[in-house]
Amino acid sequence: MPRPEFQAPPDVFYNESEARKYTTSSRIIEIQSRISERALELLALPNDGVPKLLLDIGCGSGLSGETLTEHGHQWIGYDISKSMLDVALERETEGDLLLADMGQGLGLRPGVIDGAISISAVQWLCNADKSSHDPRLRLKAFFGSLYRCLAKGARAVLQFYADNVKQSEMIVTFAMRAGFAGGVVVDWPHSSKAKKSYLVLTCGPPLISTSLPKGKGENGEMCSDDDDDSSDEDGEKTVGIYERNRSKKRQKTKKNGKGKDWLLKKKEQMRRRGHDVPADTKYTGRKRKTYF
Amino acid sequence: MRLLTHNMLASNVRGATTGYPLKLEAAKWVTKEVELNADFLRGLLPKIDWRALVAATRALGLPELLPEEQPPEEEIFAEGAANVEGSAIRRIHHALLEIHVQEGSLVCPDTSRCFPIDKGIPNMMLHEDEV
Which GO BP terms, alphabetically (chain B) (predicted)? Predict the structure, then answer.
C-alpha cells in the first residue's frame, strides 16, 4: 500500500469510511499513542504538574489528543478532514477542535500557546493538491504562524514521514527560516518500519538547555552489517567466487550451523531496529545435544 | 468550542489587519463541568485578552458573569477562593473552560467574513482567493 499522501488530498482521503477504519484499528491506535507519548516526551515540558495549553496539528480523530488529556493538558486540535473530526466528536475528546487547513496558517494570537505536537501530518504540506497550492508558500505560512503563536521558549514536536531526503530538507529549511531552532530526531534509524522522524523545534535562540535530544536506537554500534562477514571466510574471498554461484553440491556448508557470533550479530541487529529481543545469556546459541 | 479557544483565535483572511477579536454569534451553547485547576489558570490568565473574553460572555447573554475590568490577580488567586461559590476564579474558570458553543458563527472584525460553527467545530477553512 502506498502512503496515504500519494493517494488523495487529506480532506478527500480521510472520508467517512477511512476515518472510521483509522480509529477502529487497534494497530493504528497503538502506534499513534506510542508516537504521541514520545512526542510529548520530546516536548520536554517542565515537570511541575501544571497543565499547559497545547496544540495538536492534524489531530484527526483525537487519538494523539487523548495522550495529552491523559497527562492533564488542555489542547486545541486542528484538522482538515470533517469526517475525522466527526469521529473525534463521537469519541468525546476533551480538546477543542477546529476545521482548518494548516497550510493557510493557524490563525492564533501571538505568544499564547505553550507547545505544539503534530503526528504524521506535516508531510501533507509537501503535496500540491490544488492548482492554487504551492508547497513552499504553504510551509512558510504554517511555520510562520506556528512560530508566532508559540510562547517564547516553547517547543513544537512534529512527527512526519518524509518521502525522500529532499522533502525532509525542505520541511526543515522552512522551519529554520521561520525562526525556529532545532532539528530532526530520528528514532530507530536502522529499521524501515519502526523508524520515526521528529522535527523538534524551539521558539527563540538555541540554548544549551534546548539542545537536540538523542534519537532512540542510535547507539555507537552503527557499523553496517556486511563489514564483519569476512572474519572466517578469508580463504573464499581470495578465490573470488560467490558462494551462491557454486553448484549446490560444491557449496561449503558449515558443520555447526550458523554459530554463536552470527546469532549475536542478528540479535543486535534486531535490537537496533527496535524489536523486543531476549537478553544475551550464557545459554544463547549454546550447543545442543545431537539427536538421531 | 470553548471561550478559551475563541480567545486565542484570530482570522487570517486576506485583508484582515489583526483579525481579532472574532465576533461571536452563538445560537446554541451548553455547559460541561470541568474540575478547576488554579495553577493552569494562573499560567493562562496573562495570555487571556480580557476584553475579548468579556465581549464573548456578553454575546452569550451572560452580562453578569465577568466584570468589565479584570480583577487584580491577588484577589483571583486568593487562598481558598477556588472553593467559594461565585468567586472570581470560579467565574473565570466557568467562562473559559465550561462553556461550549455548539452552533453559531465567528465574524472577522476587519472583513466581516463569517466562519460558521457546526457541532462545536468552527470551520476556519479559507477559499483559494482569501489566502
Answer: rRNA (guanine-N7)-methylation; tRNA methylation
